[in-house]
Amino acid sequence: MPHLPAPVALRPPQQLTTLVENRTVYALDAFELNVFETHQTAHQVPLNMGHVVLTTMLRGKKVMHLSGQPAFEYLPGESVIVGENETMVIDFPEADEQHPTQCLAVAIPTDTIRQTVDLLNEEQPRAEAHLPWHLDTLDHAHFQNTPELTSTLERLVQLSRDTGRVKDVLAGFTIQEMLVRLMQTQARQLLFHNYQQHATSHRFAAVVQYIKQHLTEQITVEKLSELACMSKATFFRVFKRELGLTPVEFIIQERIAEAKRLLRNPLSKVADVCFRAGFNNTAYFQKLFKQYEGVTPGMYKRQLLG
């Protein structure tokens, strides 16, 4: 289920200076927040903001063209990190007055990124010394928002509109948190999508591989911490710090994903799916599925079947 920041009010038509990428800017000491709206179809629109930029889609659909990558659809609930001085080329294939696109873009000064990365590597180093913290603007730069990142973005929007005297101080802390959330998201993508490649060189990749191979069995934190060559307490703490979720939360997410796959079979029954996905209690399965997907397993299945 996509995690979208709270909607930003669209500008009245009389306030728009252009129907393509109309820009509203909120400038603070720590970052610059931009809200872009497009109210008509357009293609091959270039945009370069100078800084490293986190963009997040709120409404509508874009097609993004970034250097060295194939074009991709960009939808609400997703974010893209764009490198310093990189030009985005954007299509708006469906935008009109009734279906405008809207996107947040947070421009982050290089010094802010460097200070945050240096602080993390000094105070909270990653589990593997050969993989220090860094913000990747090339690989793993397009991703689904997490609830934590969405919450941080919402606070950035609120701070941008705040008139309080300490808003720039709070903004500095919040932009650092956002950068940490982004790096955790990228660390997750690296491991969860390429765990087999890193299984012998990264202790958490070996943990991810074990979880995926034993998803329907009972998985204990004791076993996982043993694979990571850490004490149980250290493993739990460092896994959460580095990847932004606990080992138990990751296991649940994997089992929910497997349940969704199984529910696509028209002949599958919810009770069978529950146990085949690794859950051992149907009431608990129903509760977790609705918590993660917003609907019950039965409703999810009916939606798939139309």
Automatic annotation (TrEMBL):
The keyword Transcription applies. Keywords: DNA-binding, Transcription, Transcription regulation. Gene3D superfamilies: Homeodomain-like (1.10.10.60). Residues 205-303 form the HTH araC/xylS-type domain. InterPro entries: AraC_XylS_family_regulators, Homeodomain-like_sf, HTH_AraC, HTH_AraC-typ_CS, Tscrpt_reg_AraC-type_HTH, Tscrpt_reg_HTH_AraC_N. Transmembrane segments: none annotated. One of its GO terms (molecular function) is sequence-specific DNA binding. It comes from the Bacteria. PANTHER family: ARAC SUBFAMILY, HTH-TYPE TRANSCRIPTIONAL ACTIVATOR RHAS-RELATED. This is AraC family transcriptional regulator. It comes from Hymenobacter perfusus.
